[in-house]
Write a structure and sequence with these properties.
Blueprint: E1 3-8, H1 14-23, E2 27-29, H2 37-42, E3 49-52, E4 70-76, H3 79-88, H4 100-110, H5 112-117, E5 120-123, H6 129-140, H7 144-148, E6 151-158, E7 169-172, H8 193-200, H9 203-226, E8 230-237, H10 243-256, E9 261-266
Length: 275
């Protein structure tokens, strides 16, 4: 598999590009020493690999030389754009001396061997971060994000025990009629068939399930295209033992038919209801 060097000016988007590649499942190394590039590229691997090499290595960059099997992508931008982005950054500029335009010019000189060896140059002055991420993924790992897929976690919880702090989405199932008020169902949980049948006898439960399923199908595809690999959707009811459990299990069953990687968790199903 091809090894890549990702390089370019400070403020041109190397950190954004590296984050996108990591999300796509690319093996990434930041600030790889120049004298280790050939060994890094020679390692056996089944997916692309990328290493950031930039002006932090100062005079060692003069020894860089391209070789077969290595591709170089260089990120560049106008000086005024670089200056604005550098001013917003908390990282020190790698130029050995000077500031402002003098620092940018010094960095360009340091990176001249890499710029000359670049197979692809991406000008980022007018690019939004999401567009830069898309371009880098398409270049280095065109199938990476989709092949990696998205791991979806569906969980149930009880509002009376607090919101799950790690959830990306929260769906409220408390508009559905509550099995708790049926004495025969109260000791059971949403994992029992009797409770499931009772919940889905409510038209609103069926409609909520179908709406969540359709929304997630659309969203998962959009998240994968954006390079995201994890999503946690939490469904809540009052105690977290009946309605939310039924919906989480049913939603997982619906979406597994789409070949999604799904984990189901029930945070509060074993907690006694204080009522």
């Amino acid at each position: 598999m091809t090894a890549w060097v990702v390089t370019g000016l400070s403020g041109a988007g190397k950190a954004t590009a590296l984050a996108a590649l990591e999300q796509a499942g690319v093996e990434c190394v930041d600030n790889l020493p120049v004298d280790l590039i050939e060994a890094f590229a020679a390692l056996p691997r089944e997916c692309p690999a990328a290493a950031v090499v930039d002006a932090r290595q100062r005079e060692r960059l003069s020894t860089f030389a391209p070789f077969p099997g290595l591709q170089v992508v260089f990120l560049d931008a106008r000086d005024d754009v670089l200056l604005r982005r550098i001013a917003e950054s908390t990282r020190p500029h790698p130029a050995p001396s000077g500031s402002g335009l003098a620092a940018v010019a010094a960095e360009r000189e340091l990176l001249a061997p890499l710029r000359a060896a670049a197979d692809v140059v991406i000008e980022t002055s007018q690019l939004e971060p999401s567009e830069l991420q898309r371009r880098v993924r398409e270049l280095i790992a065109p199938d990476g994000a989709r092949a990696a897929g998205l791991a979806l976690t569906l969980s149930s919880f009880g509002y009376k025990f607090g919101l799950p702090l790690d959830a990306d989405w929260v769906a409220d199932a408390r508009m559905i009629r509550n099995p708790f008020w049926e004495p025969s169902l109260r000791p059971m949980t949403g994992l029992d068939p009797e409770v499931r049948d009772y919940v889905f006898d409510d038209r609103r439960a069926r409609e909520l399930l179908h709406r969540l399923r359709d929304l997630l199908r659309w969203s998962v595809a959009a998240y994968v295209d954006h390079g995201r690999r994890y999503l946690h959707v939490a469904i809540g009811c009052t105690g977290g033992r009946h309605r939310s459990v039924v919906l989480a299990e049913a939603l997982a069953a619906e979406l597994r038919a789409d070949d999604l990687t799904i984990a189901v968790r029930h945070r509060d199903v074993e907690k006694p209801d204080p009522r």
